């Protein structure tokens, strides 16, 4: 009897967590047109080596985002709806690539893309951890650079992301100071490389 009760409890808990996580994601996609936040990021290699960084992000859905690494080195990643720019001020190097269909199947699509996430991802529930409800999104296209992305919500707010790539690395992103639907100047999503920058087009 105790074993049966435990099985029922686990099943109900899993369904509740799943419902909460899916509801939070759908609410984010339907109600969030813009977002600003601070973030801290840790990248753990397959050998256990950890790299820490931090910065700010701005998102205007669909398709616009400004992701700025401030520490330990400055780096800009800007999407203007047609192209994605990556600029390294220290190297004076700018890389630009078309957004295309690749972005539609990337983790950025869950934050800055359209609402058709289930077309590109297979979703499954994960256990809650420390008050955060989790779900895992696995790309339906097998040729992506990552295996899965996990999204963690608390009280309807996106708090964490975990990306697991094909090189055995785990990237964890922690969000703070979130502002939902702020007015963001359109210039934040435009980038013109400096005249002395080396521009690489992919």
List keywords for this structure.
202 residues; alpha+beta; outer membrane lipoprotein receptor (LolB), chain A; 49% strand; disordered N terminus
What does it look like?
- This protein is an alpha+beta fold.
- The protein has one domain: Lipoprotein localisation LolA/LolB/LppX (outer membrane lipoprotein receptor (LolB), chain A).
- The protein is 22% helix and 49% strand.
- The chain contains four helices and twelve strands, in the order H-E-E-E-E-E-E-H-H-H-E-E-E-E-E-E.
- The protein has a twelve-stranded mixed β-sheet with strand order 7-8-9-10-11-1-2-3-4-5-6-12.
- A hairpin with a 4-residue loop joins strand 5 and strand 6.
- The protein is globular.
- The relative contact order is 0.20.
- The N terminus is likely disordered.
- This is Outer-membrane lipoprotein carrier protein.
- It holds the Pfam family LolA.
- It is found in: Periplasm.
- Monomer.
- Its main location: periplasm.
Summarize the structure.
The chain has 202 residues and is of the alpha+beta class. The chain has helices at residues 2-31, 100-104, 107-112, 117-120; strands at residues 34-44, 50-60, 64-71, 75-80, 83-88, 93-98, 121-129, 132-139, 146-154, 157-165, 170-180, 198-201.
């Amino acid at each position: 009897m105790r074993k049966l009760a435990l099985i029922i409890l686990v099943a109900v808990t899993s369904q509740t967590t799943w419902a909460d996580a899916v509801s939070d994601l759908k609410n984010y996609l339907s109600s969030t047109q813009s977002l600003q936040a601070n973030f801290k990021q840790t990248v753990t290699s397959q050998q256990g080596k950890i790299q820490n960084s931090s910065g700010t992000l701005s998102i205007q859905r669909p398709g616009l985002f400004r992701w700025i690494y401030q520490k330990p080195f400055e780096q800009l990643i800007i999407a203007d709806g047609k192209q994605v720019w990556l600029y390294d001020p220290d190297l004076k190097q700018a890389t630009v690539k078309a957004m295309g269909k690749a972005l539609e199947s990337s983790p950025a699509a869950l934050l800055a893309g359209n609402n058709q996430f289930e077309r590109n991802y297979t979703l499954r529930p994960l256990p809650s951890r420390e008050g955060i409800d989790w779900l895992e999104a696995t790309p339906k296209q097998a040729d992506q650079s990552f295996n899965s992305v996990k999204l963690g919500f608390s009280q309807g707010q996106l708090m964490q992301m975990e990306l697991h790539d094909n090189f055995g690395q785990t990237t964890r992103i922690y969000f703070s100071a979130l502002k939902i639907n702020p007015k963001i100047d359109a210039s934040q999503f435009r980038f013109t490389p400096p005249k002395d920058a080396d521009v690489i087009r992919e």
